[in-house]
Amino acid sequence: MTDIDKALDKVLDKAIDDVLADVLYEALTNWKEHPEKSGIFSDLDGTLSKIAPTPAEAIVTPEMRKVLQDINKKYAVVGIVSGRDSTEARRMVALENLVYIGNHGLEWLEDGKQFYVPEAFNFFGLAGNLASELSDIFNATGYFVERKKLGVAVHYRQVEDKEQAKARIEEVLKPMLAKYPLKQAEGRYVIELKPDLPVNKGDAVTVIALRAGIERAMYLGDDVTDIDAFQALRQLRDEGRLQTVSIAIASDESAPAVMQEADYVVQSVDAAEALLRWMSSIPRVR
Ligand SMILES: [Mg+2]
């Protein structure tokens, strides 16, 4: 074991509880030995980036960026899978040559080109109009209306009475949901309207993983929309098409189902960083 390995062990074992670290090490041994046949997919906010008071304030730290850069050099494909616009995800991560999947799978950036699920085009104007309308309604302190290409999200993290805020947002969104082909999604102190299309994070990860011809796919996420990706990977595994591992980043804000649906749980964004750093380090026998 080299000094680097020892140092990584220390970080990782501190970040993840001992039992889990051992099980994870074992599960990921093949990945480290064959990164050219493995893909790593990860949610952004709450997984690679700590939750900030508003989405605009969230950042990817230089340390995390370096880790992502290192895994991208070794692994066949690295995909960032976000509810944000893919262009926003790329701005935050600020690395070329990753695949950026945005709007929960409805569009993605790859090799400098942006691709959309065809039906998504119908929602361009609508999302903008609804964002303007919602910005006028939720202009009080504490609310934050996130304007996206294919949807709109109302964040209420900074509102004091969160239960009341949530009820109020749902009340306002109700007629919009009745009027337009949209569906509602909830996350950590955010409620979102998005196109009612049968495409989610799991579908996007499945398509990109299978197309890349990899043998293993990993997914990390912290919130309800990541469950789709956890389930998609499980299905690929059950069908014998890929070896997969899904990892939830624990948070007392997240629905318990997020933790239940993942294969493993790590305790924080720091732990996710430690895990990815270990995955980018030199293969070795533990
Ligand atoms: Mg998240």
From TrEMBL:
The keyword Transmembrane helix does not apply. One of its GO terms (biological process) is trehalose biosynthetic process. Pfam families: Trehalose_PPase (PF02358). It catalyses: alpha,alpha-trehalose 6-phosphate + H2O = alpha,alpha-trehalose + phosphate. SUPFAM superfamilies: HAD-like (SSF56784). Keywords: Hydrolase, Magnesium, Metal-binding. GO terms for molecular function: metal ion binding; trehalose-phosphatase activity. Signal peptide: none annotated. Its EC number is 3.1.3.12. Its cofactor is Mg(2+). The keyword rRNA processing does not apply. Belongs to the trehalose phosphatase family. Removes the phosphate from trehalose 6-phosphate to produce free trehalose. This is Trehalose 6-phosphate phosphatase.
